Amino acid sequence: MPYTIAMVSDFFYPQPGGVESHIYQLSTKLIDRGHKVIIITHAYQGRTGIRYLTNGLKVYHVPFFVIYLQTTFPTVFSFFPMFRNIIIREQVEIVHGHASLSNFCHEAILHARTMGLRTVFTDHSLFGFADAASILTNKLLKFALSDVDHVICVSHTCKENTVLRASLDPLMVSVIPNAVVAENFRPLAKDEPIATPRQPSSGALSPQRPLPLETVTIVVISRLFYNKGIDLLIAAIPRLCAAYPYARFIIAGSGPKAIDLEQMIERNVLQDRVEMLGAIRHEEVRDVMVRGHIYLHPSLTEAFGTVIVEAASCGLYVVCTRVGGIPEVLPLHMTRFAKPEEDDIVAQAGSAIAAMRAGRIRTERFHEQVRMMYSWTDVAERTERVYDGIAGVLSEEEFYGCVEGEEVAGEVGGSSSVVRGRSGVANFALIDRLKRYYGCGVWAGKLFCICVVVDYLLYVVLEFIFPRANIDVVRDWPRKKAIDETDETEKLGEEKTWIT
Amino acid sequence: MSQPGLPANLSARPPPHLYFHPPRDSTDPPRRESSETERVIQPSNAAKASLSAAEPSTRGRTRRKERRRRGARTQWKKLLWVRQSLPDNYTDASTFLDHLVRNPKLQPYEFWRLVADSTVIVQHVCSVAIFVCCFTGIFQERISPITVVSWGSACTVIGWITWEVWVDNHEEMNNRRLGSQASSEDDLPSGDSFTKETSSASGTQTPHAEVMGDFHDDFHPPPEQWQGDPLSNLSPRNQQRLITIKSAALIYCAVLGLSPILKSLTKSTTSDSIWAISCWLMFINVFFFDYGGGVGAKFPASLSTNASLMASTVLASRLTSTTHVFSLTLFSIQVFGLFPVFRRHLLHISRTLHYILTFCLVLGAGGGVAVTVGGGSWTFLLLGCTLGLITAALTMGGASWWLIGLQKWKDEIVGPWDAARPRLRRRWA
């Protein structure tokens, strides 16, 4: 059953990033599966109005006041008129918001519920509970997610975090990981010349396979921020360089910690062993990765860590810290985990370097394996199941696993009907919505209820001033036929021959 | 770690050694109880209570049922790369929120300890109160500024001498220990740190250091190597004493010379503004004071000290003569610059003396406030002292009791989602 889906987030192209590419890839694959998808984001510099991307993916750049890091100003209601117009115009059935720092997405979820639409929220990040910023964000998230139909998290750790932050029923939170476009992260083919966009002279150091290796190259690609663990990297590199004279480093990325890294290089006179490439474009990531053998990821917090999947897909052995959702992402034969401590990172990376040099790590099949593990088509399929579940296509038993009404009716029968209604989907009656918001807190609950009531009144006023009948309905993009099976297998076959 | 690649069909069950089993250190806190889970999930929204309602009372049943329903199908694993046969929203009740830890660093407070520790704050508040009373007295011309500054200077000199005695005692002890252990290798660092500590303390004790920065700490070599000025026949300690006296004289002269300027600096500002500004500056002083600072702390809470000195500067413009201004400024340097250093040392040396000093300060502040408000009779003085003591005791006890009561609301949640704190080795640069 095809749906019309609106993806709403503050973060979308032209700004590069993980959430942005997630939204784009998921939308494309959903379109391939026969759904209609539009994206609603705020206007970026030089990118306003309505744009079409590949495959008839329509993007609405709504003019909005941006305050900080491309996040819009939280006005709660001001987005409603335009949102309503877009929703009616496009006949949207499901609103899917992304990223918990996106104010746009929270507002859209609130308005969508007022308009009687199904909502889904995808959380891409982890938050603590201690600092003031987190407390505020968590309260707002609780507000937005009080009345959401389903939540998607990118890892199991992220799910636990979101369930705690927003006080959700764990059964209404699905875990659907990110994916990579494996075709863009192929390992170096045998006769492919090593691509060195910045320094053509270092092409002489091409990785010598079969092993043993003369030099072992360690790649780090990361924004150079504190929470990416750059302090650990700065501490570990001199010790690794001293202990393993055949180790080299390539560091790509930019950020405030770049100066510290450069100071470390100069203090230890490592200019010929540590290469800093500066910021690189996402398309160049693969070309940098295939120059190395080991990928070092010393991050301090990470919900999923797409970059380590990309590295493994390029045939790199991954050394990473055991934080956040990282331990769930890759199988043990592709990774080595370290504690976020200088000594442990040095120990683990050191043993990985030694093992790599001795040829004890076989990375030839990594690409094929990663390709089987993560694909956007799979993500789209699983997301589609979520849509089926909230739209009532799947029965409650099928979607939520167990029916409380049967066996534990005495205890939770009443409450479960408030969460999901009798048919297994949340109902839109204003009084039921208010009940859900009221429980958010002593003061916050009442405040949220006022917000919801105002939102509803606004909706009624809008229906009166701009009647539905006066809003034109857009024609759909002339759609290609969904990719059929033969096409897919053909493509796979082609790639296989290309790799071997 | 060499492993043959996995079978291409990942939906097949991988060999068991590939499962991710998070290591459980012995230092890890014990696994949480199920009742605790319930408290954590605690969806204030009753509507969302289906999970917590399902446990703990029905948890076992639910799990049994799930097992029954899913039968012999593969077990759920907390992994993303394995294609699992269970639905995406499956929640494994036995491992969900397994790594959650609540209040890992909770230290229950003890009442009397809290009361004892709060004396540090009481001391500072009292010394601020005494300063304000002295200013009011000078302003209303009820006490002579010379009396105030003479008493203050006398106390400072006594404090300095006391401090010198302490340092001498410690040095003797140190020397004895060093001599008895024949300067064994492992003792050297502690001796070093101690002498460093005392020398820095000597820096902060001198008015010179307070104002000009204790640069002689940084510029002179450590005392072990310091043989003193070869031309002088004084011992190193006496040389230091000489420096202290010299800088005290310098400060004295500087304040004396500057007092006419200080007097006219904020003369054009109205008195209302001056009272408001000095109130705010005193609040800043009290709230930003470094109550936890140890003996060796260099420049503790410079914002606080600067705020108080600025307060005395703006207050000085309300006084009538340069002598008044000079006295007040010197007194404020003594109260806000040197007295905290002395108090910190006293706490380090002896707790009993610290309590006695607290008692005296409370008496002084209470009496001072009463006399300032009511007039200079003995009745008011006694009444003020009594009231001051009672108020201080009630405040200290009440605040401590309240803080202990607030402890039960503490709910710190720690889990794998928190940003890790990187552990770096100390650099010996």
UniProtKB/TrEMBL annotation, chain A:
Molecular function terms from GO: phosphatidylinositol N-acetylglucosaminyltransferase activity
Domain Glycosyl transferase family: 208-345
Pathway participation: Glycolipid biosynthesis; glycosylphosphatidylinositol-anchor biosynthesis
BP-aspect Gene Ontology terms: GPI anchor biosynthetic process
Cellular component terms per the entry's GO annotation: glycosylphosphatidylinositol-N-acetylglucosaminyltransferase (GPI-GnT) complex
InterPro entries for this protein: Glyco_trans_1, PIG-A/GPI3, PIGA_GPI_anchor_biosynthesis
Domain of life of the source: Eukaryota
CDD domains the UniProt entry points to: GT4_PIG-A-like
Residue span, PIGA GPI anchor biosynthesis domain: 42-131
Keyword terms, alphabetized: Glycosyltransferase, GPI-anchor biosynthesis, Transferase
Entry EC no(s): 2.4.1.198
SUPFAM superfamilies linked to this entry: UDP-Glycosyltransferase/glycogen phosphorylase
Any single Pfam family the record assigns to this protein: PIGA
Function: Catalytic subunit in the complex catalyzing the transfer of N-acetylglucosamine from UDP-N-acetylglucosamine to phosphatidylinositol, the first step of GPI biosynthesis.
Record protein name field: Phosphatidylinositol N-acetylglucosaminyltransferase GPI3 subunit
Annotated source species: Microthyrium microscopicum
Automatic annotation (TrEMBL), chain B:
Pathway linked to the protein: Glycolipid biosynthesis; glycosylphosphatidylinositol-anchor biosynthesis
Domain of life assignment: Eukaryota
GO cellular component: glycosylphosphatidylinositol-N-acetylglucosaminyltransferase (GPI-GnT) complex
Acyltransferase in keyword set: no
Region (Disordered): 1-71, 177-219
Keyword Lipid metabolism included in the entry's annotation: no
Leader peptide range in chain numbering: none
Keywords from the UniProt entry: GPI-anchor biosynthesis, Membrane, Transmembrane, Transmembrane helix
Basic residues biased stretches: 60-71
One family name in Pfam for this protein: GPI2
Major site of localization recorded for this protein: membrane
Protein family per UniProt: Belongs to the PIGC family.
PANTHER family recorded: PHOSPHATIDYLINOSITOL GLYCAN, CLASS C, PHOSPHATIDYLINOSITOL N-ACETYLGLUCOSAMINYLTRANSFERASE SUBUNIT C
Identification of the protein by name: GPI2-domain-containing protein
Native source species: Microthyrium microscopicum
